Amino acid sequence: MAILEGNKNNFEELVLNNNGKVLVDFNAEWCGPCKMLKPMLDEVAADRDDVSIVSVNIDDEDELSAKYGISSIPCLVLFENGAESKRSVGLIPRDEIENLIGGK
Amino acid sequence: MYDIIIVGAGPAGLTAAIYARRASKKVLVLEAKNYGGQIINTLDIENYPVEAHISGFEFATKLYEQAKNLGAEIVFEKVTEIRDNAGAKEIVTPKNTYKAKALILATGSENRKLGLPKEDELIGKGISYCATCDGAFFRKKNVAVVGGGNTALEDALYLSDIAEKVYLIHRRDEFRGEDSTVNQLKAKDNIEFVYNSTVSKLISEDRLNSIEVTNTSGEKRIIELDGLFVAIGRIPENQNFAKLIKLDQAGYVISGENCMTNVEGLFVAGDNRTKEVRQLVTATADGAVAATAAVKYINNIQ
Predict the structure, then answer these.
(1) Is there a contact between B212 and B221 (Cβ–Cβ < 8 Å)?
(2) CATH code, domain carrying B246
(3) Which fold has domain A4-101?
(4) pLDDT (tens digit, 9 = 90+) per residue, B82-97?
(5) How many CB pairs under 8 A join A and B?
(6) pLDDT at B302 exceeding the cut of 80
(7) Residue B34 and residue A75: Cβ atoms within 8 Å?
(8) Cβ(A27)–Cβ(A56) below 8 Å
(9) Residue B192 sits in which domain range?
(10) Residue B239 shares a structural domain with residue B282
(11) Same domain, B258 and B274
(12) ipTM of the shown complex
């Protein structure tokens, strides 16, 4: 599945109302580690159909980043059935992204 | 059997890979985390010759592609042990044991932590080691910087333009950093200097909300804040090699500008060795020196 762009208007629909797993990637254009994470998230998105990935630009979406208490990026937040279940801060390798999401 | 194995895919390690490949050696680079090392956190590099401005991410990615296109194998595994077995070097990771004629350690360094309970779980929840990365999240908020070197001073100056108030906590009564920066800080009206003090406790509910500092006379004080920026230096990532190679007291591999160590055929490049200037340009220079020395060593033993 392609990575979708999340914003304050579609976040409820894309993330909170989703009954499965959604991995939200909080990032910014100026953040080097976020750019390194991106191709790995693209791979995960291509490989797995049991998780949706939503990208949130924290500069455009300060309301969302404040709501979820983001104070360091990259920050990956996993939602299951619309509720936050896990989070990881900083650049992590591909297998740790898979660990965060968990089994299919 | 590889000719040269390089541990670390930062600027030093990748430059070593370029030089070793151009000398037609079989090269493997092992990296525990991401390529590029700590330079990927730098927004804008302004002191590398030729490019007046380049982001750390772009620099790292170009260097990585260059090394790969020249034929260096790059594998993401953490090296847990190195052994010198009758001249052949054995490099152990959780998945494999690799062998090489020569080895270059270019593992760099990592942020020194305060070493307080809850520190790790509060990273990204109020604790940060990179003001330029995370400062923007603390607009009009109260923050503290811990440290007394140039990084701490520059962090405090950077944050003073963003945050409501900045506490600068230092364990001595004078700073090791440059006087010009200290004077700039003293001219700011939203910076409070907390001298002769260390952070003794991190106080949080779901995120950091205050810290306890203790001064040299044992007096304690609670500071309420939203963010704590830790800038107390870096530690070289040589712990796994201490059995084989000589380190200095701070943990750096003892070496001169020739990038040699006390073990034959084992070289060191970049921030994890003893040196005066730890900069991008000296890291890449080390990569060239170490690779050239390794190539010479291999050609001599054959």
Answers:
(1) yes
(2) 3.50.50.60
(3) Glutaredoxin (3.40.30)
(4) 999 888 999 999 999 9
(5) 60
(6) no
(7) no
(8) yes
(9) 120-230
(10) yes
(11) yes
(12) 0.84
